[in-house]
Amino acid sequence: MTDRRPALRLDATVVVAAVVVALTVVVSLLVRTDDVRVVVGAGPTESPLERSDVVCPAAGTDLRVATTGTAGEVEVRAGRSRSRADVVPGTGTTVDVGERAAVVTGEGEVAPGLVAARFSTPLAAWACGAPAFEQWFTGAGAGARHTSALQLVNPDEGRAVVDVVVLGADGVVDVPALRELAVRGGETRTIELARLLPRRDLLTLGVTVVRGRVAASMVDSYQGIGSGGREGTDALASQPAPAERNLLLGVTGGRGPRQLVLANPGESQGRATLSLVTSDATFTPGGLEPVDLPPGSTVRVPLTAVLREAAAGDEDPVALVVDSTVPTTATLGMFVRGDLVNATPVAPVESQGATPLPKGEKLLVLGGATRPGVAEVATWDADGEPLATERVEVGPDSAASLELPGRARLVVVRPARTPVEAVVRVTGKGAATLVRVVEPVSTGLVPDVRPAPVG
Amino acid sequence: MSSPSPHAGVAVVLVTHDGARWLPGVLAGLAEQDAVARVVAVDTGSLDASRDLVRGAFPDADLLELTSAVSFPGAVDAALAHLDALPPEQRPEWVWLLHDDARPAPGALAALLEAASDRPDVDVLGPKLREWPSLRRLLELGVTISGTGRRETGLETGEYDQGQHDERREVLAVNSAGMLARREVLAGLGGFDERLPMFGNDVDLGWRAAAAGHTTLVVPEAVVFHAEAAHRGLRRTALTGRHTHFQERRAALYTLLVNSRTAALPWRVLRLTLGTLVRMLGFVLLRSVGEALDDLAALVAVVGRPGAVRAGRRARREQARRLGSAPDTARVKALLPPPWVPYRHGLDFLADVTSAASQQAADIGERRRIAAAEADPSSLAAARLRAEQARRERDDDEEGELADTGAFARFVTNPVALALTAVVVVLLVGAGAAWGSVSGGALSPVPEGAGDWWSLHLDAWHELAGGTDVPAPPYVLPLALLASVVGTTAAVSALLVLSAPFALWGAFRFLRVTGRLVSTRGAPRVLLVGGATAYAVVPVVSGAWGNGRLGVVVAAALLPWLAHATLGFADPEPDRRRRAGWRVGLLLALVASFTPLVWVLAAVVVVLGLLVTLLLARSALASRTAWSPPLVALLVPVVVLLPWWLPALRAGAGDALLLEAGRVPAESLTSSGLLTGRLDVAYGAPDWVGWLLLGLAVVALVPRATRIPVTVCWLVALLAAGLAALLAPLSLTALTTTTPPGLAVLVVVVQGCLLTAAVLGGQGLARSRLNSLTRTVALGLAAVAAAVPVAGLVWAVTGDDALESDPAGVVPAYMEQRVEQSPARGVLVVTGSIADGLAYEVRRGDGVTLGEDEVLALTPEDAATTEAVRDLAARPTRDLVDRLGEDGVQWLLLPAPADGEVAARLDATSGLTQSGSDPGSRAWEVTRPLGDGVAGDGSSLRPVLLGVQGLAVLVALVLALPTLRAPRPPAPDETPDERTGRAS
């Protein structure tokens, strides 16, 4: 009769309670919300370029414009003068703009594939390109013997502002005049480094555009002072960013001085190893020691003896590879036939690269392939007649060379299966230069745009 | 003015009109008086046996028969004229006025005359009036009138006469029923004012008497019983009309205006007008709309007919001239009540309303038992109740001694008060991050002023982003109301800081009442404190508080109050159930405005509850008052929130109905989150505390006494869990974000249910007999249970949160200032890069503030704007810039790190001028003509919806208030015919 454990007696309430609790737990465990997804931006899509601006520095004489795209009319602005010129694929068009900087603008169908270059005698090539936001010039001089001039061209109507950092042998050089440097709309501003910061060490200039668009270029010259001094002027081309591997194409054997200039814009110490590239292989000859790269400084590495010895061997090295533990910029300064020739890294060509060419003997140097592939090389003469189309095999860790017809005034390089980097070494009477083969921008990037999440 | 023979020369003037119901008593009382020299009966056209009764009782009386058109003042005038016409030696010195519903107690006249002989300076005397037929309640001991026209008796309503007011004192006026006045003085004052035919003429007479320098004395030894037939509407004549309240109020206003000084007249009119509005509000709160309208009509009647007031004032001026002395304003002023009296009445009224409103369901357990006992007085429960009441009365006596100690002493000796105070202090300290300006996580910054919230609520079209007709979320209205008082920053800060203490208070009340509902003695206090504390920290330990999820925090604070109000459905009285329906409806609307899913849950609970009751106990739903209150409660939010959900559906923003206040995305839930009370955010407490509570709630089913209520708690938790399980798979889209529905409030509900179950289980365990083994187990359980609130409090103090006081803005200050001045001007902010994609928003006003965030999140993406921004970033043209200008975009901003490519393209675009910006970011000003791109009309329906909302809130508020005034019970001997009265 006496139930000692009434709480556990199985009556209706117990059953109901147990069922309710079990159901609650089971149902609760079923609750699971979908993950929150914030639709983040996707990558851009490519669309045909609507407009392209190619800016040429105030150097050299005639401006040569060519296209890998569609024939049409481009606008050429030089100072306040505006002219129009026809461009036809396969033909370089010469436009006379005097010595002023010029902006070549192609709109609509003409925009894709526009390339331009200027040349001067004694032989020097002045690369034209689209305005860039970051450009690194390695190995500039600001002394009496070696002087460089930075040229800033603003192709737009609005004001542009650039910041220039200067790396010297002992670290960053503070130059207040090069901060927040304004370039008025349409203006070409030239800064003689020797005037601004006279010093003897080699310098590296990093040009960052803060506002607006600016195309920067540099004129690099050596004046012979005293006995045995060598003279020469060439463009000191830029590279878009420091990299851990820099390929310098167009190494030329010979007796003249060779010096490699490396800069480490970063804040940590680095070390670079140098290798030479021949048509077969990449190797490090004896005597080519690793180079220490102090942070924020420019380092000069004399290579005259090493390159001379290497050139005396079986294979003539045509390129130099700088591998570094930190992102680095590099320029190889050479005196070829008594003329200054600067070699700087060039951007790889993915589908089609081109450049107008000056008169002179020409050697196309191809390197930087990531896997075995071929490159189709086509040339045209000054009248637009096709000269030759050849296929060159390229592979990693080697460089290929191809003699181009002397009459060639336009070269187009189409790599297959691998991107390649290409320069054309042009030698003339007592002078030489390297002409960079660039891939013209043919598509524009249309960003993915969405409303921002609220809050 | 002494009289040589005080007992000679009193003439009784008895005014009768259809008073046959009371007259026998009145005449009997009159017959008991000693000093009556002459009786003058004035009958104003009675249709009943009044005249015969008078003749029968006093054959010698002078009976003046007048028509029913003659008012009370006219009747008195006629009597005075009659007396005046007597030979001088027969003219009485005193006149004693009696109504046909005023029965003098034996010795009343003698007492009055004795007082008159004691105070020869007195010209008017009045007795103590007591209620007839109750005989014990005090009606009046002299009256005066307040500045707002209220008849002041200085007595509480229904106060019993225990001799507490028995002292003779000078007063402004005495009631005309039982008034003893010198005949010459009465005649000299011109009798009663004819313009006050029925009510309030006694106050006016007293005022005039005082102004003329006469003294009025109330004599408590003299007692007259007064039925107040006309005042109570028991007797209706052409003079009283159907609206006695209107007549009384009109008389009061008239009295004030005719007797006050000329200089004070404009002020009086203004004050009476404003006062009338306030009184009307009060009457509306009492659900006495008729009286409110009477008040208004009386004001219009008096102020709208200045002629009557002018005539009255002229008459008083002439009287003063006749007397040849200036009015004795000092005497009058001393006899009028102090000026603060009306305000004290107002405060008393507010306090009454508040306390009644807050206590509505507090004693529901007791009242259910009383009702059960009344239904079956022989039951065991009834016997127990009687024993309990006896014990409580005994305890009250003992406590009466304790009650003499001060409030502080009572506080420090009350462990519950001390514990709750300590918890509140800890909670306030723990909420330190929310003091002052606060935003972060799901909480947007507040706007500058309450006006921003008001316009967000009132406007049908919002000048946000590209302009939108998505309605403001419903919680903007309560926020605006709060911010109008304390400001926006303090409003949000106060909500975040005070929500936990408020939840603590509400949970304590709810658990106490629930405990008493379940068993007589209720839950032990330590359980109540622990349970309430554990509930108060639910939003904190769940992570909702730390993530700034304001909606859930506020809902959690209000839910126990809502649950408390819901208990009113179980009240035995139908009227209280009805009130509970409206009250729950209002609270549900308030909670649902922050967390709409609560309404859905309520609907599920109500519908299922009614269905189950219908199946199991159909008889319980026989009465309409049983099932209609819950349905009313469900309907009120639907109407009150109409300006939100209807436009939201029309604007295609129906997702709003499933979200919670605050930024999207809503917090996710993992599968154990509902049981452990944790949201999937970084700010929740460790899971094990939640598992502890779950375990306790399961164990709570063991004690048999409380198993059914605990099961009910689990049932509600099951419904909440089921709702969550149904809704969880939904994925709502808010602009570029997908978000789960706002389920956090269901987490709070489930936790509340588990807590209530645990407390009730604890109550069952504590109240059951334990042996040594079970006691050990119970002690162990108590230790585990204590860990839940303690761990919660520790987390409240130590937990992390996303709240910050001053988030950095991306828009430069100068732009912000300019766009704040003009809401049509905006800043197009484009973040990201070409490589990774760009995101844009148009900032207007003071940025995206609380309330606007939800509007913007629910506004569908404007594909044309997106396209325009894409083109602007890819290939900007002057046309696009023109369009920006037309849309009212004054600046274009790329915050750091700005994409150089886009920046360069914009630099090269004409119509854009570079503007100053922070390092790394870029800005342009649009130098094209600026249009009013965000202007829009919105729906013209909004004013209607807002009107419906306002009206619904008002009606629900009035209907939710408890019944403060019981209707006066009709006299026992009254018949329906008499109540209806005669309208001649």
TrEMBL record, chain A:
Keywords: Membrane, Transmembrane, Transmembrane helix. The chain crosses the membrane at residues 12-31. It comes from the Bacteria. InterPro entries: DUF5719. Pfam families: DUF5719. The keyword Membrane applies. This is Uncharacterized protein. It comes from Nocardioides marinquilinus.
From TrEMBL, chain B:
The keyword Metal-binding does not apply. SUPFAM superfamilies: Nucleotide-diphospho-sugar transferases. Pfam families: Glyco_tranf_2_3. Keywords: Membrane, Transmembrane, Transmembrane helix. Residues 965-984 are annotated as: Disordered. The chain crosses the membrane at residues 416-438, 479-505, 526-545, 605-621, 628-646, 688-705, 712-732, 744-765, 777-797. It comes from the Bacteria. This is Glycosyltransferase family 2 protein.
